[in-house]
Amino acid sequence: MKNLNRTEWEVLNAAADDAENLEQIFRMLHHASPSMLLSEVADAVKILVQEGFLEARGENGQPLPSPSDLDYVWRAWFTMTPRGKEAWRSHAPGGPSTGAVPPGRLSFGAWRDIAVDIPLEDFQRARHEMSKDFPREFPE
Q1: Are both 83 and 125 inside the same structural domain?
Q2: Which among 2, 6, 19, 53 is most buried, taking Cβ atoms within 10 Å?
């Protein structure tokens, strides 16, 4: 499988949950990395479509008439293909994600390269402490 560079992985990550256009993808990536250039993102989108990691569709979800016309990079909506999902998972920061959480731990996912993973006992203790002042019954 093709090795993804950081920009390509971030583009796939931006399109992981639903269809995104170039503007939305760029905004997501630029917010996290202000030095990211629009041309970098557009090039990554083009490569990912050519390699079969992203699928390009028109505004109404219809297939594009000619993917050889590179104008689609600016007009299309992009969704991850099954091949793209596989590459996205296998190149995720920290290695492939199996979705398995070791027994006795809680994992809340990742945000901006910060993975929240705490022992279950610590979570339960903190939850118990926070709930001490929380009323059990609410006045009508």
Answers
A1: no
A2: 53
